[in-house]
Queue: 3 jobs
Job 1
Amino acid sequence: MSPASSPFAHNNQSVRKVMMQVQIAAFPALLTHIYLFGFGIVVQWLLAVATMLVVEYIMLKLRGRPVMPFMTDMSALITITGLVFCIPPEAPWWIIVSGSAFALIFGKHLYGGLGYNPFNPAMLGYAFLLISFPVQMTQWTLPVDLSGHALNFIQSAHYIFTGQIPGMNMDALTGATPLNAVRNGLSQGISATDIVTQTVKEEAFGLTSWGWVNVAFMVGGLWMMYSRVISWQFPVGFLGSLALISFIFNQYDPTLYPPASFMLLTGGTMLAAFFIITDPVTASTTPKGKLIYACGIGVLVYVIRQWGAFPDGIAFAIILMNIAVPLIDQYTQPRVFGHQR
């Protein structure tokens, strides 16, 4: 029997295949992170995976859904991977466990599962952790070039579970991120130019350790763009708007506003540009809408970084724009084929 209607098109993509491609694209950033900050992120990822398996099984059972098809689509794995990159590498074990559980339960399952959630689950979990545990979420492990010591896997695991490493002073191995350093310096009357120059130690090619991680995310993201896993409007809109507004304010007063290069290569900028805001469920779906959505996030990130209570602001910017997605899509629908004026 022939199909009822046409035309028909075959798409060789699937949820599992797309999620696997995203996971592969994040691998360069993972290796760079391990090289520069140690093995804490590996311990955190393993904890997040264990939490994911337990939470996914329980929630799918409670919802009366088949376990294996949904647990193997890798959507939950992408959620916890995105969250892990936002967590301080040596944060206490319960940070990533509670954050992953919150992201999956409140960001995904309570709305009906994948495809029905209005908010990005990873950013919802990240926002929950920032608000609930601000002290633990701001104690970042310093990169090797600043601390002079990289923790191995055993040392990282010991500190994550016990809060100490025998014979080692962890206070010398933790400190503020560049975004935190700028915020703290400005509050003390130090110019942004001096902070960027003095606080952030430059490495090869003028990139900080955080800069190298951002570059690694960009490499993976460009591969996804080339493979058409993600739409170009997301990174172009987000990075373009963030760069433009950073440039304008820096030209207006460089003592108060850091340069665009600093804004683009610190925090989770490239992670957001290529891996977070590109979420096909919670982002805009129309071509124009994707660009508007991404530009809105870029502007909000800058506003929160400069004048908000949190040094990065990516999680809150994305969640706020998630709210606006239905309205954006409504007013940016492309014309139907055959439409006449």
Job 2
Amino acid sequence: MSELPDRNLALELVRVTEAAALASARWMGRGDKNAADQAAVDAMRLVLGEVAMDGVVVIGEGEKDEAPMLYNGERLGRAVQPKVDIAVDPIDGTRLTAEGGNGALSVVAIAERGTMYNPQHLVYMDKIVAGPACCYAIDIDAPPAENLKNIARALKRDVNDLTVMILNRPRHAALIAAVREAGARIRLITDGDVAGAISTAMPDSGIDVLMGVGGSPEAVITAAALKCLGGEIQCKPWPRDEGERQKAIDLGIDLNKVLATNDLVQSDNVFFAATGITSGELLRGVRYFGGGATTHSMIMRSRSGTLRMITATHRLDKLMRYSGVNYG
């Protein structure tokens, strides 16, 4: 039998997200998405390789836009146990980083081997995400107005008290119109739906629900976070074209099946870490000073339900000698 993860690996994963954030934040506002992503990927790969685990990347980034990536199936770690699945997003919000926008994160989640959903070639999903009080109030197959009515009832509010987070994309024109017609407020974001989805489960975030089509990898990472925080994600595969649709059918993927949190991450022993790259409402970004930097991170474990917020100060000269990462 495989050894189940026992120690709190989230305390080790935060070194991974800190490294990726410190490396990629040097590229904030410099207009080069690939350079920022490459810096995050290189740092994340190096530090993940030093974690005492036998990890396999199940959720990697890069297929959508041919960016640098930690590839699916890549083995990482320096031990034979515990055997775990790894979900990574070196930068959730690559464009935000390149353009100097708010709310970019570096994210890693792990769970026991074989418990994370693999979306295969389908890189987008239609999603609805809400916090712990609304787990039984959402239904991705229901119209937006009905979901908002049920969420408002669960939260003991009126619909016009609610704030809905939606990616600002042309494909969401009908969704935005329906939410406006229902009377709820809308927060449009350009990128970063992992941070947005997590916000729905954070008290006092001001975000009540996330709706719309976003990345499939981000859906699995969101599910890992919600296993720790509570809350619910429901999603359905969203083929971009007829070719993707037919390939999914050929692979036996049911495009009408609703995937919930426990479908995306089956494990009840999940570890999650995120570090801010640029400052947002969830986490502060990297701040540099002469010879060093500060980072702001969150780490969670589902088994204990503990959320830790960590502010760290780094001496970059020492850190580069110790870790081998170039923090520039």
Job 3
Amino acid sequence: MSNPFLEYMREVAQPMRDELTNANFTELTTAEAVSEFFAENTGTTLVVINSVCGCAAGYARPGAIQSVDTEKRPEHLVTVFAGQDREATMELRSYFPTTAPSSPSIAIMKGGELLHFVSREEIEDSEVDDIVRNLQSAYEQYC
């Protein structure tokens, strides 16, 4: 039996998912996909924990997308959707044991190691250009 609420939320969230996947982010929708990704990829990865909130739409997604329009950038681009892909999000957050859960948020990782983290609080108090500069500065350091 289908759940009308879950179906509605999937439909509402799809354009928000598409914004990142259309920009070449790989969507990790299960805990297994997250684990497999980090087991198989040791290079640098930009991770976006996506959400339906306004700061994700206005700042996080545009900032992440614009930030990779540079020569020095992470090798991989991935995303999970908080509130939609709960197990994937929980698994991903297990790689950041010292950070509080935050969505949206953006991380730079190498293998399974967290190198740089931009929390919701930093995102909602910034402009897109601030996020781009923040991430590109981290790319210079880690990529």
